[in-house]
Amino acid sequence: MILLEHVTKTYHPNIVGLRDVSVKIEPGEFVSVVGQSGAGKTTLAKLLMAEERPTRGRVVIGGWDITRIRSAEIPQLRRQLGVIFQDYKLLPKKTVQENVAFALEVAGASTRRIRDIVPQVLRIVGLENKAQRFPTHLSGGEQQRVVIARALVHRPKILLADEPTGNLDTMNTREIMDLLLKINAFGTTVVLVTHNREV
After folding, report:
1. Residue 88 pLDDT > 80
2. Alpha-carbon distance 67 to 54, whole Å?
3. pLDDT tens digit string along 7-24?
4. CB within 10 Å: which end of the chain, N or C, has fewer?
5. Which residues have CB under 8 Å from 187's CB, separation 6+?
6. Distance of alpha carbon 135 from alpha carbon 129, whole angstroms
7. Surface-to-core class of residue 129, CB atoms within 10 Å of its CB (0-12 exposed, 13-18 middle, 19+ buried)
8. For residue 79, which of 104, 115, 59 has the smallest C-alpha distance?
9. What is the separation, in whole angstroms, between the first and last Cα of the chain?
10. What's the pTM value of the predicted model, to 2 decimals?
11. Where are the beta strands (DSSP E) in 36-103?
């Protein structure tokens, strides 16, 4: 469950990112946060992943009050919360398989666990045949699939997708949305942040 109670976020000097927002998202829901630029969507996403702290109010993720989360606890939160960004942030000198494995390596996963999980998530996103390719040899849609695979390696309960189709054409947008719906059907809560009402 995700719970925001009367959350306000202000930036200095007097810029309001969010004002008195209350939201409850149940486990397994697919929720879209839609709004134009400057509406506070990214601020909301940053609060959910503890990149920002609320000025007032409370943020709870999976029963864990992260309102005043300590820096040392953020990696633990991020393992429960898969995050997909608009810009892919893939490592150009690593293959698809290595990019996905890297997310597990930095978390201290064993070689055996990495060998088990990476092929599974590549199958889910339909990239099992492109595991040895480098990001520059992939289309934009395929690169975003790598990002989704990387976000899934910790089997997160929540997937936060911040403008995941912002750089994609219509066909790739449809494929990414279908993939997010498939992931949601597995029971993962999906929060989609987008400016595109059609999406």
Report:
1. no
2. 7
3. 999 998 888 999 999 999
4. N
5. 27, 28
6. 14
7. exposed
8. 104
9. 24
10. 0.88
11. 56-61, 64-65, 81-84
